[in-house]
Specification:
five-stranded mixed β-sheet; alpha+beta; about 170 residues; single chain; 7 helices; 5 strands; Severin
């Protein structure tokens, strides 16, 4: 599967992406009867950021560490259909309420998502730097550091987009 992505797209996904590919196969096999919107959410989760529990910052991020690092938002909400995760970054202001209050915009969004689902998704709250964030990180699908060595030996998604932009600019000249 990894080689197929490399041949088609010219870059390699991380091991988490291989997990994603396996999850896609499992989800479609188990939930083939889902509506397209629900199946899409199960295969490719939604990542939203919040400046505070009451203020939406950005409605859709890519599922990458680069998106997390470049975002100045301290709170992220990940909707993976069967799992909902509220992730407070390690740089979040300690005065932000944790977990978010029941009457805030973030909780209203969570409750709306739960109400719209045919199943009851599992809700998790994670504090970066204090709690184990591996569950949240398992949904991030591409990285520069593909093999864990600390060196970029393959192209990640952000680099891929930058290379495409450069190629288009050169082509337009």
């Amino acid at each position: 599967m990894r080689k197929a992505f490399t041949l088609i797209f010219g870059f390699t996904f991380s091991a988490c992406s291989v997990c994603l590919a396996k999850r896609v196969g499992w989800v479609t096999g188990q939930n083939g009867g889902l509506e397209p919107v629900s199946l899409h959410r199960a295969i490719y989760p939604l990542l939203i950021s919040y400046a505070t529990p009451d203020k939406l910052a950005y409605p859709r991020h890519s599922l990458s560490r680069a998106a997390l690092m470049t975002s100045e938002s301290p709170i992220f909400f990940l909707d993976a259909f069967t799992t909902l995760i509220v992730f407070y970054s390690s740089t979040a202001d300690p005065t932000l309420p944790y977990p978010p209050p029941h009457d805030c915009l973030l909780r209203k969004t969570i409750n709306q998502v739960k109400k719209e689902r045919s199943i009851t998704p599992r809700l998790m709250f994670i504090r970066g730097g204090q709690d184990d964030a591996s569950m949240f990180e398992s949904y991030l699908i591409e990285e520069q550091d593909v093999d864990g060595s600390g060196f970029a030996n393959a192209m990640g998604f952000v680099s891929f987009l930058e290379e495409i932009s450069q190629s288009v600019l050169e082509y337009m000249k």
